Amino acid sequence: MGLQDKYKAVIDAATAQGVSDLLVREQDGVLYIDGTAPSSNAKQQVWDVYESVNPDFRDSDVVMNLSVAAGGEESYTVKSGDNLSKIAKKYPGLSWKDIYEANTDKIKNPDLIQPGWELRIPQK
Fold this sequence. Notes:
It is a single chain. The protein is an alpha+beta fold. It folds into two domains: about 1-70, 2-Layer Sandwich (Beta Polymerase, domain 2); about 75-124, LysM domain (Membrane-bound Lytic Murein Transglycosylase D, Chain A, Roll), CATH 3.10.350. It is built from five helices and five strands; from the N terminus they run H-H-E-E-H-E-E-H-H-E. The chain has helices at about 5, 10-15, 40-55, 85-90, 95-100; strands spanning about 20-25, 30-35, 60-70, 75, 120. The strands form two sheets. Strands 1-2-3 form a three-stranded mixed β-sheet. Strands 4-5 form a two-stranded antiparallel sheet. This is LysM domain-containing protein. Pfam families: LysM (PF01476).
């Protein structure tokens, strides 16, 4: 099974969510998925599908570089089992500390976040 077949659900989700300039290419055993999501919610939907195909991000055979269109808000809804490091992995260039510092009004202890919280994701 090729990588595009393995991650067909992710590619389909990107298309369904209206990701523009979608570019999918396979190189050296890695599938690259690039594009611009119309909103942070659309971007999150694509990441959710990716996580269902590759739980806990065990396989390192995909690089997703999805940005949010200008004016699109960047936010993330915390799910059960999330931690700041896991969330930061979904946003290339960000660390858990960047997310923590953008949400100090809500997060008092970076090790304790609650499902359902809406976190601001800073742009890098």
